[in-house]
Write a structure and sequence with these properties.
The chain is an alpha+beta fold. It contains 2 helices and 2 strands. The chain has a two-stranded antiparallel ribbon. Bound molecules: zinc ion. The site of zinc ion has 6 residues, from loops. Zinc ion (ZN) binds next to loops.
Length: about 60
């Protein structure tokens, strides 16, 4: 007989890591709610990609 009691502690990483892109002068960098800051990029798209990669591999 299976015990069907499950603890629902499966939190999505997306909820723990809320990323934004911040601009500093000519550069843009990803920033996360967990405190992570990505490298300065010339393109905001690259900064956003860094943030997306950070969520995949914290
Ligand atoms: Zn994060």
């Amino acid at each position: 007989m299976l015990n069907q009691h499950e603890d629902r502690h499966t939190e999505s990483p997306a909820l723990l890591h809320r990323t934004t892109t911040v601009e500093r002068g000519a550069f843009a960098m990803g920033r996360c709610s967990c405190g992570w800051t990505g490298p300065a990029r010339r393109a905001r798209d690259s900064a956003r990609r860094d943030a997306a990669r950070h969520i995949d591999t914290p």
